[in-house]
Specification:
Length: about 350
């Protein structure tokens, strides 16, 4: 039997070009993270089946090569979970689903809900970001573990208060359908003296849709990890906004782990997750602009609060990590295939 202390051999599979949640969860648990993504085939109906077939075969090759005690798999897409389930069925090894909120809420995956819950019932546990989603999984017969966030480190120390002419706003965006990009641009136009940086690829399927950024907005494009981390660390504030309820904001908790205060949307899940070091807004341009000016004026107080929240999040992760390892330990005690 394997001995699980605070780390164990796991393989983490994500059908995505990048995902910091996957990478950092694997790191925290002592495993390896694999991004498997045949992006050159796109997601058109004529080619997506070939894309998924190729990613399935590559997933099976990865799992055959690595001797992990358990496999973690990101959802969406649920097809990735199905590929992992079939491999684990043959190997008689357990798997864990890490379900992002989009797996349950994005319109693209609604037709796949029966498959999603069928797979959740067969997983050791399904990781979700809120109790609301956990109850949804449990109501369909699955086991759920709530993990709101995972520690992210870019090697930072608390930074000094920026001068008025250095205060910058970083918008942690991916240009997805639930992000109020137009409102962000309007807020930036109202604050021409402040520089804004929007991360992520604006050429995706949702993108700019004809919107023109004002002169004080820089579209950074997708940034590799060290540059993205440096941007979060140097920011006066990080904005992470969504129009969807029950959606955790990864960009916001990445910022808090750097000691950078945040502005997030005014939903219950985000009020609970960011109860200090944060301002909550209704996604209107006026509220966003007002929050930025308030953050700039009281930056030291919000920065200190962000570091207090960071410490609490690290403590909560210790509890979440223990809950995950307890589930894996219980499986290890009944499954001789674990710890081979």
């Amino acid at each position: 039997m394997c001995q699980l202390n605070d780390r164990m051999p796991i393989t983490y599979v994500s059908w995505a070009p990048h995902c910091s949640r996957s990478d950092h969860t694997a790191r925290e648990l002592g495993g390896t993270s694999h991004m498997i993504y045949w992006g050159r085939l796109g997601s058109r109906p004529s080619t997506v089946w070939l894309k998924y077939l190729g990613q399935t075969l590559e997933t099976w090759l990865v799992l055959a090569r690595e001797r992990a005690d358990a496999v973690f798999v990101m959802s969406p897409p649920p097809v990735a979970v199905l590929a992992v389930y079939l491999a684990c069925l043959i190997k008689r090894s357990p798997f864990v689903v890490d379900a992002h909120s989009g797996a349950f809420q994005h319109p693209r995956w609604r037709l796949f809900q029966p498959l999603q819950f069928w797979l959740c019932r067969r997983a050791l546990t399904t990781i979700v970001t809120s109790e609301h989603l956990a109850e949804l999984v449990r109501s369909h017969g699955g086991h759920a573990t709530v993990v709101p966030d995972v520690p992210v480190s870019y090697g930072t120390e608390p930074h000094a208060a920026p001068r008025d002419d250095e205060f910058t706003v970083v918008c942690a965006t991916s240009f997805d359908r639930d992000e109020p990009i137009a409102a962000l641009f309007e807020a930036a136009r109202a604050l021409p003296e402040i520089r804004f940086f929007l991360t992520g690829n604006p050429d995706g399927p949702y993108g700019l849709h004809g919107l023109r950024p004002p002169a004080n907005v820089t579209l950074t494009g997708f940034l590799e990890e060290s540059r993205y981390g440096a941007l979060l660390q140097s920011a006066g504030v990080v904005l992470a906004l969504t129009t969807d309820d029950h959606t955790m904001q990864r960009g916001a908790w990445e910022a808090i782990y750097q000691g950078t205060p945040v502005i997030v949307s005014d939903f219950a899940i985000l009020r609970q997750a960011f109860d200090e070091g944060a301002i909550h807004v209704d996604n209107s341009p006026e509220a966003i602009a007002e929050a930025i000016l308030r953050m700039k004026r009281w930056w030291r107080e919000y920065r200190d609060a962000a570091w207090r929240l960071r410490a609490r999040k690290q403590e909560r992760w210790s509890s979440s990590k223990k809950a995950l390892l307890d589930v894996l330990q219980k499986s290890a005690s009944t499954n001789p295939a674990m710890g081979r």
